[in-house]
Amino acid sequence: MAPSLSEEEIDDLIYLARVGDDTDLTNMLQELASRDAATPADILTAAREEQSKATCLHMAAANGHAKTVTLILSYLPVVAKTSVTAAPPPAPEGDESAQADRPYIDAQNAFGNTALHWACLGGHLDIVKLLLSRGASPAITNEKDQIPLDLAAFNNHMHVVDHFLAQSKDLEGGNAQEGGLAKEAEDLKMQDDASDDAAKVPESEG
């Protein structure tokens, strides 16, 4: 049975992840898990903002809290790494079951963005590396058909783009020169506005 979290409890968990308060986040996860006979991973999965559908991982990644991202990932099962260019099959519009079948690390918010999208949007390379190392998919598209690489490129975070391209070359060898991310990066037009969702990412505290 899924944990039953109140709206206030979800708000508190989201807030603690957003500001990077690892001590209080750990304590609250453990208390709620004990109360509901669940695991911290169950609590994290259940804690999603009602309107934005953002998770604690979204918030920590968006605000550049690498230690908090590491803490959250420590509670999750390890996901097998995916190819940098292998996109998961698209789910039919409105199909929530496909979302539920995805691992927590790839959970999408109301705009279709994953935590990796938000880390790329903010140019947080350390968090991008963390998420990719734990199996986050770099090929999931948001509602604007953008993969995480696109958000990094649109915001001129070329250190993040370079990392993706290096990963692509390592995994695909010569094929990366002929297509995939390398070709897409060349075709991308730099622009100031990443997406409407950029306004939804909370600014870093302090």
TrEMBL record:
Presence of keyword Repeat: yes
SUPFAM superfamilies hit by this protein: Ankyrin repeat (SSF48403)
UniProt entry keywords in alphabetical sequence: ANK repeat, Repeat
Keyword match Repeat: yes
Spans of repeat ANK: 111-143
InterPro entries: Ankyrin_rpt, Ankyrin_rpt-contain_sf
UniProt feature, compositional bias: Basic and acidic residues: 181-206
Region of interest called Disordered, as start-end residue ranges on this chain: 171-206
PANTHER family hit by this protein: ANKYRIN REPEAT AND PROTEIN KINASE DOMAIN-CONTAINING PROTEIN, ANKYRIN REPEAT-CONTAINING PROTEIN-RELATED
Name used for this protein in its record: Uncharacterized protein
Organism: Xylaria flabelliformis
